[in-house]
Write a structure and sequence with these properties.
The structure holds 2 protein chains of 2 kinds. By secondary structure, chain A is mostly beta strands. Chain A is built from no helices and 11 strands. Helix content of chain A is about 0%, strand content about 50%. Chain A is globular. Chain A starts with a strand and ends with a strand. In chain B, a hairpin with a 6-residue loop joins strand 4 and strand 5. The mean pLDDT of chain B is about 95. Classes of the chains: A mainly beta, B mainly beta.
């Protein structure tokens, strides 16, 4: 079945970077965009950006421009999201989600990766 | 960015109640509006896409309507498993945005 398996919990210090992985299975990885969405404690869902696994092209929300990088390794059907210059308010659960097909609707979600930023 | 607002931010309801949640966009988004359900500790679940299309496997008590800037999610008869937070999301712009959420809890 279609599945997205994310990497495990991370604890980082302010100013550091974190790289979260999202391994896809059960479908053709290059056929569907992957979105990254986060949810901070007590906050709502925040879209960070999307990557086209076929081309590697990506779009990012303005809030993350210059701090986020999205990449993929098609040989292992895995997408990555790296966030740099971490701050305490980057503490959140980070989700990857496969698109329905158009590139604009996150449909099937991973279980999330908790990233805690603390000194 | 297109800004999304939701009302109310929270509501209390009983099993069997009809529940309506409103979502408003800062500019016209045609019918490019989607609804998600989020339960604690679980990933979001796509309920409605394109304003009124029911995602496969979602119970028919969920329905969506609207176009332009104003949209509605309706649960016709609230069930115990429906107590959750609901988010709207616009897919009109290349840069997606979510609403702030509406928490539905038990009266």
């Amino acid at each position: 079945q279609v599945q997205l398996v994310q990497s495990g919990t991370e604890v980082k210090k302010p100013g550091a970077s974190v790289k979260v992985s999202c391994k896809a299975s059960g479908y053709t990885f290059t056929g569907y965009y992957i979105h990254w969405v986060r949810q901070a404690p007590g906050q709502g869902l925040e879209w960070m950006g999307r990557i086209n696994p076929n081309s590697g092209g990506a779009n990012f929300a303005q809030n993350f421009q210059g701090r986020v990088t999205m990449t993929r390794d098609t040989s292992i059907s895995t997408a990555y999201m790296e966030l740099s210059r971490l701050r305490s308010d980057d503490t959140a659960v980070y989700y990857c989600a496969r698109d329905v097909g158009s590139g604009w609707i996150p449909e099937l979600w991973g279980r999330g990766t908790l990233v805690t930023v603390s000194s | 960015d297109i800004q999304m607002t939701q009302s109310p931010s929270s509501l209390s309801a009983s099993v069997g109640d009809r529940v309506t949640i409103t979502c408003r966009a800062s500019q016209s988004i045609a019918s490019y509006l989607n609804w998600y359900q989020r339960k604690p500790g679980k990933a979001p679940n796509l309920l409605i896409y394109a304003a009124s299309s029911l995602q496969s496997g979602v119970p028919s008590r969920f329905s969506g309507s609207g176009s332009g800037t104003d949209f509605t999610l309706t649960i016709s008869s609230l069930q115990p498993e429906d107590f959750a937070t609901y988010y709207c999301q616009q897919s009109y712009s290349t840069l997606l945005t979510f609403g702030p959420g509406t928490k539905v809890d038990i009266k």
